[in-house]
Amino acid sequence: MKPRPVAPTLAALSAVTLLLLTGPVFAQKASPAPTAPGVQSKTLWQQIKEGGWVMVPIALCSIATLYFIGDGVLRTSRKRTAPPEQEEAIKTLFRQGDYVGAHAYCKENPSPLSNVLRVGIGLLGEGKQVAEEGMLGALAKENSHLQTYISYLSVIGVCTPMIGLLGTVTGMIKAFAKLGSSGIGDPSGLSAAIGEVLVATASGLIIAIPAFAAFYFLRNRATEAIHHIQEIVNRLFRKMPYEALAGVHLGDDELFAAIPNWLAPEAPAERNPTGQLA
Q1: pTM for the full predicted model
Q2: How far apart are CA 271 and CA 278, in angstroms?
Q3: pLDDT at 171 over 50
Q4: How far does CA 3 lie from the centroid of its chain?
Q5: What's the gap between Cα 81 and its chain centre?
Q6: Is 277 helix (H, G, I), strand (E, B) or coil?
Q7: Residues 64-77: pLDDT tens digits?
Q8: Which among 101, 118, 22, 78 has a CA at the least distance from the CA of 229?
Q9: Handedness of CA 95, 99, 105, 111 (dihedral sign)
Q10: Where are the domains of the chain?
């Protein structure tokens, strides 16, 4: 009987041994890793509660952010700043030369556009320069009124990260105070405390980022609305016959300026019943 070759036998033995050794490794990789004991997923409400007392002002800032964004979108819309129906009605009155009616219409239908036009129409009798300066002042007033509410978003964007950082710092102080009293026997407790206090900073940033984005968006939107009003005013007052309206007082606004009392004619002296001067 012929002896069996040694090389093929060793190769077969080596393959079987390698399979036996690597089999548990592949089985361990294929099986899912067991979860660490004691690790539990936290709900959103639990994470918010971990942020501490600073989550209350941060929540108030989030509500204010939503309010100012909604109010700013409505306040800077074309329907609120320069309603198309008001623009057409005033154009019709200007074509007819009914400036008294245009002034009354602007007074009865207040809006940023009508407020600016009402000032300009009321100053037509004072000349072109006075009327234009009055409308520029009214435009600046309306722009300030729009920007005031929008600027609160910038304040929120600056303050909320600071509030969150304050909560993180106070939480870290408490965590290290606890570490100093109990020692570092359980490092996982310290890391858990640090993770909890960072929730405040993350919450502040979550509110600040959209607040800043909305601030710049609404600011540009308000600027565009003011420019649109200025274009309407320029078209309406082009070729205005100021000479024909010189000295005319339009509207029902009371005039308080009067002749100086030292230039007013003196009243005749009154006599009493006896005939003597009073």
Answers
A1: 0.69
A2: 5
A3: yes
A4: 92
A5: 17
A6: strand
A7: 999 999 999 999 99
A8: 78
A9: positive
A10: 55-236
